[in-house]
Amino acid sequence: MKFDVAVLPGDGIGPEVITQALKVLQTVGEKFGHSFHLHDGLIGGVAIDTLDIALSDETLKMCKQCDAVLLGAVGGSKWDDPQAKVHPEDGLLALRKGLGLFANLRPVKVFPMLVNSTSLKPEVVKGVDLVVVRELTGGLYFGQPKKQWRTPEGRQAVDTLAYSEAEIERILRVGFELAHSRRKKLTSVDKANVLQSSRLWRQIAIEVSADYPDIELQHMLVDACAMRFIQRPSEFDVLVMENMFGDILTDEASMLAGSMGMLPSASLAGIPKGRTFGMYEPIHGSAPGRAGQNLANPIATILSVAMMLRYSLALETEAQTVENAVLATLEQGYRTYDIISEGKTKVGTKEMGDLIARKVKG
Ligand code: IPM
Ligand code: MG
């Protein structure tokens, strides 16, 4: 089959990890007889440098015309000035909003051969296989008012955590649907002891759960959840939460897998069923200090390609082929700098990409 994929490498290590992910994608194409037409676009700091904006209408339009979007990373100290009119991150937020990508899936799966590469005890991280469903186009990131102003008493600022019933319901449904095809456990994360938005969230979770009698629903306060993540993470299956809660907890959860360089993500415009439009990116940032040195771990981006094959292109066998290739490469002892341990073979970004592509070829 023929597919159109928008490719937005972005900043820092973004272009390097994207190059490896595309190599794996093209190998999948050759092996299974698909053609992936790639459409390049600018986002983030590179877009600011060339166009003075973090995301152009043209790039947004191009993404809308494709079957899926593959993104590297945005940002870097060069564009970090808090006084600056535009930041690279604005491009990412505009893209999420502009493409209606409300459901962010962040799976955390601990590979058995990496249980000794984390800062937690192996027995704690062993068997972890969870997915955080983060609401991505509402909540504290987008609510209005959102501004800074001056008063005679000094400066003030406000951000707003607002959710409509429809927004809460649709993200919860994504969680319930996913739980259905997994271990049938859903944790709805909130702060219902303090926040009105969370009380509504909890109420709607209870209402929606009536449609999913086979799923065990559990409510957990976000602070307790942060604790449980490092105490007994293997008990979690699917978790659903507000945008900002999800931002914070997924960085924490990523440490269970040993490195942010291992974790993919999907941002979907609907409940995953058949072919759902989405954007795929590693959860790590642009790591400017590591850029251009053939150091970065491309696995998160390669696993993001697997998610793209699964959710946006409905190519499940192809997705599993990529995931198995990653597993086989790790099993043979190859490691990038971030997951290296004694007795393993250290490789660079490109070599890791080559090894995985070769395994895909079979
Ligand atoms: C993430 C990132 C982004 C976010 C930044 C880069 C805007 O931290 O995807 O988790 O806060 O959503
Ligand atoms: Mg984040």
State the distance separating the first and last CA atoms: 20 Å
Lateral strand order in the biggest sheet: 2-1-3-12-11-4-5-10-8-9
CATH level 4 superfamily of the largest domain: Isopropylmalate Dehydrogenase
**Oligomerization state of this entry?**
single chain
The strand count comes to: 14
In round numbers, the mean pLDDT is 97
Q: What is the count of distinct domains? A: 2
Helix/strand order: EHEHHEHEHEEEHEHEHEHEEHHEEH
Radius of gyration, rounded?
A: 20 Å
Strand content: 15-25%
Unique bound compounds: 3-isopropylmalic acid, magnesium ion
Question: Total helix count?
Answer: 12
The major β-sheet equals: 10 strands, mixed
CATH architectural type of the largest domain: 3-Layer(aba) Sandwich
Q: Which regions are unreliable across 5 or more consecutive residues at pLDDT < 50? A: none
CATH class of the largest domain: Alpha Beta
Shape: globular
What would your notes on this structure say?
With 362 residues, the chain is an alpha/beta fold. The chain is 40% helix and 22% strand. It has helices spanning 14-32, 45-51, 57-64, 88-98, 122-125, 165-180, 196-209, 222-231, 243-254, 299-311, 316-331, 349-361; strands spanning 2-10, 35-40, 68-73, 103-109, 129-135, 143-151, 154-160, 185-190, 216-221, 238-241, 264-268, 278-282, 334-335, 345-346. α10 runs antiparallel to α11 (316-331). The radius of gyration is 20 Å and the shape is globular. The two termini are 20 Å apart. The model has no long low-confidence stretch (mean pLDDT 97). Bound molecules: 3-isopropylmalic acid and magnesium ion. The site of magnesium ion has 2 residues, from α9.
